[in-house]
Amino acid sequence: MTKPHLSILVIVIVILIWSSGLMVECGIGVNWGTLSPHRLSPSVVVDLLKHNHIKKVKLFDADPLVLRGLMGSGLEVMVGIQNEMLMALGSSPLVADNWVHLNVSKYLVKGGVDIRYIAVGNEPFLTSYAGQYQSYVVPALLNLQQSLARANLASYIKLVVPCNADAYESSLPSQGAFRPELTEIMTQLVSFLNSNGSPFVVNIYPFLSLYGNSDFPQDYAFFEGTSHSVTDGQNVYSNAFVGNLDTLVAALSRMGYNLMPIIIGEVGWPTDGALSANLTAARAFNQGLIYHVLSSKGTPLRPRVPPMDIYLFGLLDEGAKSTLPGNFERHWGIFSFDGQAKYPLNMGNGLLKNAKNVEYLPSRWCIADPSRDLSGVANHVRLACSSADCTTLYYGGSCNGIGTKGNISYAFNSYYQLQKQNSKSCDFDGMGLVTFLDPSIGDCRFLVGITSSSAGTHINWWVFMFGVLTFIRIMS
Ligand SMILES: *[C@@H]1O[C@H](CO)[C@@H](O)[C@H](O)[C@H]1NC(C)=O
Ligand SMILES: *[C@@H]1O[C@H](CO)[C@@H](O)[C@H](O)[C@H]1NC(C)=O
Ligand SMILES: *[C@@H]1O[C@H](CO)[C@@H](O)[C@H](O)[C@H]1NC(C)=O
């Protein structure tokens, strides 16, 4: 009786090898931000990445929990340094040595984390920072480069500085130039990057252009053709992303670095919290972007380049991000906070697959007690929403039309889940009520939180088959 089983196994393995041969080795990575009140455990997130064949991940810090979760994963990692640390790093070689030692060298061991880039600051030249970090960037780079050299890592790890696209400007791509007050610093930065073989990292957000300018032509933000193309000499631009990228290419060429490699550090589209932030638009933008990148079409100023590395923003929704830029800020994930794919998206290897082994709190919700007079509730709602996320309730959000009672229930539930369903957190002076019936209405989802220990080190089927495959490849 073992023979038929064996042949089935062989067929399965053959199919797996065949299909894995078709998988595209692409440079599409994701930004893994962790400002969420409901954090998935790093091991669940790492499994999610592997399971979706995402090979590159960009972090905003060097959180030991996250880095430990990435150990042995084989993923290519960019760690980050927050802007607040630039001054200290730039003023002391010792601080830089320490940082490299604690947050990088320690992980670059066998079975460790494959750290390839260090992002020195995050958009430190952003106009709204009014220059407060500007002068620390190059000194921090120089000290960190020395530290990497002392740790024998200078040839393996590249220092980069993710810049916001507001670092350069122009009405036509070919006229691109860095902001005048940044000319000197950009000259130093680009020369530093060039001498170390590092790429220029830029964050490009057509969504923000659309959101911020009522006269921005909607279809120019997407990749499906436009009736508002931009003609620039012999070149015609039909898409804001490509036009923006070429503006940077022109700005770099103007400084004499027309071949400097470029990586897109952040790009994406949010799904909630504003009218143009919705599932349809996010899917259209991200899918159009991915196909554009995978097609290696390049841009008019850089045709036929090898596929560029891009990092989607972001992997998961982050319900604790500041809403200063807008309510959409907490809804950039291609997955919701609990690792569920929000819409079908093909990153080159088939559609996104959901996270496994996510451990939810019990299926219960906190709502406004329908039998109670709710006249004094406003303060409770305000307090609940000052710590929990209520961004979907506002204009343009998925829960904007659910009525007064709906609003109150949403706020109560958001707070209750944030408090891990602690029974006291659904009191609200007797106006709250725990229910076992999901109050979600239409697109408006009333969430159930996840346990803080959400899953440990599960070996799932895919990881097992991957092991079998690797074994077979090694043997053959
Ligand atoms: C670097 O490592 C130290 C010690 O583990 C940690 O306290 C610090 O937060 C890390 N830095 C960053 C930017 O994550
Ligand atoms: C989604 O966003 C797109 C892009 O701005 C917009 O055209 C469309 O009307 C929005 N869809 C909905 C249902 O709001
Ligand atoms: C629900 O709350 C949102 C946000 O405060 C508000 O815009 C909306 O008008 C409210 N709806 C009702 C029916 O009160």
Describe this structure in words.
The structure is a single chain. It is globular, with a radius of gyration of 24 Å. Helix content is 34%, strand content 13%. The chain has 476 residues and is α/β, with parallel strands linked by helices. It contains 13 helices and 17 strands. Strands 5-4-3-2-1-15-12-9-6 form a 9-stranded parallel beta sheet. The protein has a two-stranded antiparallel sheet with strand order 7-8. Strands 10-11 form a two-stranded antiparallel ribbon. It folds into 2 domains: 4-356 and 457-475, TIM Barrel (Alpha-Beta Barrel); 365-435, no CATH class. A hairpin with a 2-residue loop joins strand 13 (298-299) and strand 14. Helix 11 crosses helix 12.
Brief overview, please?
With 476 residues, the chain is of the alpha/beta class.
What distance lies between the first and last C-alpha atoms, to the nearest angstrom? 27 Å
Which homologous superfamily in CATH is the superfamily of the largest domain?
Answer: Glycosidases
Order of helices and strands: HEHEHEHHEHEEEEHEHEEHEHEEEEHHEH
> Which structural category fits the helices and strands?
alpha/beta
Neighbour order of strands in the largest sheet: 5-4-3-2-1-15-12-9-6
What is the CATH topology assignment of the largest domain?
A: TIM Barrel
Which stretches are poorly predicted, pLDDT < 50 over at least 5 residues?
13-24, 455-476
Biggest sheet record: 9 strands, parallel
Number of self-contained structural domains: 2
> Shape from CA axes?
globular
* Share in helix: 25-40%
Taking all Cα atoms into account, the compactness measure Rg is 24 Å
The counted number of beta strands is 17
Report the sheet-strand fraction. 5-15%
